[in-house]
Structures are given as structure tokens and as C-alpha cells.
Design goal:
This is Alpha/beta fold hydrolase. Keywords: Hydrolase. Pfam families: Abhydrolase_6. It comes from Nonomuraea roseola. Helix 2 crosses helix 3, helix 4 runs antiparallel to helix 5 and helix 4 packs antiparallel against helix 7. A six-stranded parallel sheet has the order 2-1-3-4-5-6, sandwiched between helices. It has a single domain, classed as 3-Layer(aba) Sandwich (Rossmann fold), CATH 3.40.50. 42% of the residues lie in helices and 14% in strands. By secondary structure, the chain is an alpha/beta fold. The chain has ten helices and six strands; from the N terminus they run βαβαβαβααααβαβαα. The two termini are 14 Å apart. The model has no long low-confidence stretch (mean pLDDT 96). Helix 8 links the parallel strand 5 and strand 6.
Length: 226
């Protein structure tokens, strides 16, 4: 059985999931699609097609983080027969939450006009305050993948309201109580929009994959093996 892990904005398979893969290798063959190099005006459907293009024609478990959660939800809605279990981490439904839209639009503007502030804004909204403090100057290091700006612009256009009723796979939605990029109310709304879904909440900033790797691995494993 395959486990497909879909990365989020500004990340790639290595940065989002590289440290987690071994935690699933004994129970699943892990596949980590990569759309971090795609640029231009992106769409959710384009990224969904990119993720599924080379997948085997058989059922699989699907995990998405951040924008990857939006993409994973779209995949599950469009091809319910193949998605066996679905896990959506720190995702959202649309940009009707002004706080959410303001964060994405500010992030995109800084990316286009002020690289130094862009580098600082990322960790401020991606992690909990204590985690950023512990990271120190390392929090602002690193070069984002080429597709980051295009993905941020897509983040601000997301609207998957009409797709949620089409999701039939057993679904676990995970929210992060200290999420400053996608306020946790958005993850709760995602859960409420998917009939029969389960919900879990972790004490973490947005990038729970790095802040709480053991806890998120356990949640995913327990769910896909249930």
C-alpha cells in the first residue's frame, strides 16, 4: 500500500517530510510528489494533476500539509475510489477569513518587494513563538524553492467549498492551536465541511511537521492503520 505525502507552500518533499519518512516505511511505501519547481499562475487542479500523474493505478493513503492539504482534498474529491484514507494538516477551505487573506497577501507582497522582510515574515507566521526563539538566527536562513511565490499567490485564491461534499474517504483533519499563518479556526471549518471526518488539534505553530514530528507521525500512523 502506498502513502502519498503532499508538501506545502515554500517547502518540498525533503524539507517537509524528509525526517518523517522512516516513521512510515515499515507499514507503507512512501511517495513524495514535488511541485516546488512549478512557477507561473498555478491552480489547485494543476497541482492535483501533478501529484497524481505518476501514481500507480491502485488505492493509496493521502496526506497533505498546508497548501498540500488543499490539493489533497481536491484529489480526494475528484477521485474518491482511489483515496483510501485522507489526512489534512493545517489546511483551509477558502479566504473568507480576513486574517488569513491578509497574511497571504502580505507574504506575497514582501516576496515581491522586500527579500529581507520576506525572510523574517516566514518564520514569524510559520512557527510558534517559542520555537522561533529557540531557532535563533537559523530561522531566517535557507532559500525557498522557485515556486514559492506562485504558491503563495495561489494560497490567496483558494476556494474548495464545492469539493468538500464530494470527499468520501475516511478523513482526519489536524489543526494547530498556535498557527499564525492559517488560524486554527480554518482547520476546524475544514473538518466541519467534510462529513464524518475526525479532528485532532496539536499545540504547535503552522509547520507542525517540524515542531511536533513525533506527535504528527503517531496521528497519521494510527489513522491510516485503523
Amino acid at each position: 500500500m502506498n502513502l502519498v505525502l503532499v508538501h506545502g507552500t515554500g517547502g518540498d518533499p525533503a524539507t517537509n517530510y524528509g525526517h518523517l519518512v522512516d516513521g512510515f516505511a515499515d507499514v507503507r511505501h512512501v511517495i513524495t510528489p514535488d511541485y516546488s519547481q512549478l512557477t507561473g499562475e498555478l491552480s489547485v487542479d494543476q497541482l492535483a494533476s501533478h501529484v497524481t500523474a505518476d501514481l500507480p493505478d491502485e488505492p493509496y493513503d493521502l496526506v497533505g500539509f498546508s497548501l498540500g492539504a488543499v490539493v489533497a482534498a481536491a484529489i480526494a474529491a475528484g477521485d474518491p475510489a482511489r483515496v483510501r484514507r485522507l489526512v489534512l494538516i493545517a489546511g483551509w477551505v477558502d479566504n473568507s477569513d480576513f486574517r488569513l487573506h491578509l497574511g497571504f497577501s502580505t507574504w506575497a507582497r514582501l516576496a515581491a518587494t522586500d527579500p529581507t522582510s520576506f525572510a523574517a515574515f516566514g518564520p514569524l507566521v510559520a512557527f510558534s513563538p517559542a520555537f522561533v526563539s529557540a531557532m535563533g538566527e537559523d530561522a531566517t536562513k535557507g532559500t525557498p524553492p522557485p515556486g514559492t511565490v506562485s504558491q503563495i499567490e495561489l494560497d490567496a485564491r483558494v476556494d474548495i467549498r464545492d469539493r468538500l461534499p464530494l470527499i468520501t474517504a475516511p478523513t482526519l483533519v489536524v489543526g494547530c492551536s498556535q498557527d499564525h499563518l492559517v488560524p486554527v479556526s480554518n482547520a476546524r471549518a475544514l473538518h466541519e465541511g467534510i462529513a464524518g471526518s475526525s479532528y485532532a488539534e496539536l499545540d504547535s505553530g503552522h509547520v507542525v511537521l517540524l515542531e511536533r514530528p513525533a506527535e504528527i507521525t503517531t496521528l497519521i500512523r494510527d489513522f491510516i492503520l485503523s
